[in-house]
Amino acid sequence: MFNKDRWKEIIEVLTSNMFRTILTAFGVFWGILILIILLAAGKGLENGIKTDFGDIATNTMFMWSQATSKEYQGLPKGRRFNFKIEDVASLWENIPNLRFISPRNQLGGFRGGNNVVRGIKVGAFNVYGDYPEIIKQDPMMITSGRFINQSDINEKRKIAIIGDGVKTALYEKDEEVLGSYIKIQGVNFMVVGTYKKKSNNGDGEEGQKEIFVPFSAFSQAFNRGNDVGWMAITAVDGASITNLKEDIISLMKTNRKIHPEDTRAIGNFDLYEQYNRVESLFVAMRLIAYFVGILVLISGIIGVSNIMLIVVKERTKEIGIRRALGEDPWSIKLQILMESIFLTIISGMAGIIMGALFIYGINTLLDSVGPVDMFLNPSVSVGVVVTALVILVVSGLLAGFIPAQSAIKVKPIDALRAE
């Protein structure tokens, strides 16, 4: 069936009018190229935005206290309150499918001011009182020493883990950091570790200007008692924190004597919900890319089909002679289909190769100029290439089907009379 003479004939037919063949192939080439470029650009944007999330546990919500907006149980409207450390135990007991709960207190931030001193050097940094689990919710790379552990919490050790930005501001270049002391609002803390992490703004600078100390030592040193400023709460894999959020907030309202319908008293940020919105956006972008690319490809396939109809018309006499000599109609039909598929696949593969070279060039350019905000490593998966090949084969069959049907409908006597 796939003999040498058949392939020789296919090549002769397609090269007999090379300019026409190239113009026909360009439509398919352009459609596949556009599809690959659109998908690669979408993937680059997706990679860039997801990188901004960093390694933070996305199935997480953050919860903090605000002023109440309703009177309740004799307590006034506008009341300020704090979560308590016992609220953490209450969450563990009453809310299923929780993986981590990290209560946190904070100094610095928007309130600013130089709050850290070492010798004659001073600086304004965010200082967090944390539990060990926070490193699993907001990962960081420990570059020397260690992070907070449970013994630090139990023994209220005044130790600190500082970022590279703090180290640069308070220490000389080759000065030993571990075992030294820094003074946070007049209280000495011994540095036992340094870290580096990427912040959400992309350059990582602000993420290095933070200091982590044990929650218990923070509360004791800065007179916070059992108050909790805010919490990071992560659900187990397979359970959405978004679905648990309402129960969590209702429990806190009960514990803190807040009106059940008070929507302002407890602030929250659902990272999982935001992440899913981003995911949905990228799904929509991929669908649009496929839609636009396939529409362009269809226009190319229509061009192939039209040209194959012209080719069949030009070969009417030849087809008539072959029919008169007894050639099977399926053999003629197969010949037309093979010509169509061959032209489609060759032009499509050229589009895939050009798309791959384009993506390689963009990645090389990005490597040379450095990272670009919200755009990183544009690429297409092997699955996309396989899908493109399947589309090409199906498209080739469709493009050749009508001309092939037209060819076998020609009666030998009519074909021989054709001029």
Walkthrough of the structure:
By secondary structure, the protein is an alpha+beta fold. It has 3 domains: 4-53 and 276-417, no CATH class; 67-97 and 237-264, no CATH class; 101-235, no CATH class. It is 53% helix and 17% strand. It is built from 13 helices and 14 strands. The protein has helices at residues 4-15, 18-52, 85-94, 134-137, 150-155, 164-170, 215-221, 241-255, 271-314, 316-324, 329-369, 382-408, 412-417; strands at residues 60-65, 83-84, 98-107, 116-118, 121-123, 126-130, 141-145, 159-163, 181-184, 187-196, 210-214, 227-228, 230-235, 266-270. Strands 1, 3, 4, 5, 6, 7, 8, 9, 10, 11, 13 and 14 form a 12-stranded mixed beta sheet that branches. Strands 2-12 form a two-stranded antiparallel sheet. A hairpin with a 2-residue loop joins strand 9 and strand 10 (187-196). Helix 2 packs antiparallel against helix 9, helix 2 packs across helix 11 (329-369) and helix 11 runs antiparallel to helix 12 (382-408). It is elongated and about 105 Å long. The model has no long low-confidence stretch (mean pLDDT 82).
